[in-house]
């Protein structure tokens, strides 16, 4: 039997949850990076000109989300190995290292607010 198996299994499940989240963020970033194709067809059917600035914004935001997903995987891997070492350690330590989690959550909130404003601007531009 593996000592502290339940703790190791919980650590691995948490790691896999972070990886799934990162994959979802990266997929959304790829979708957003290709959002300019959707904007092209919508503005073409509405017989309006296609704003170049908004196309560049979706491309840059998509790239940022792709990089952000890669960073999530990197930080999750570092956290997994740190927790694995702490679980096998006989010493009692306090839980820490929430800086990256707070940074990632703040970044996701900022991206969500930007997307709300961005999509609202596009909707109002079509009217």
UniProtKB/TrEMBL annotation:
It comes from the Bacteria. Residues 7-84 form the DUF202 domain. Keywords: Cell membrane, Membrane, Transmembrane, Transmembrane helix. Pfam families: DUF202. The chain crosses the membrane at residues 21-41, 61-81, 102-120. It is a multi-pass membrane protein. It is found in: Cell membrane. One of its GO terms (cellular component) is plasma membrane. This is DUF202 domain-containing protein. The lineage of its organism: Bacteria, Pseudomonadati, Pseudomonadota, Gammaproteobacteria, Lysobacterales.
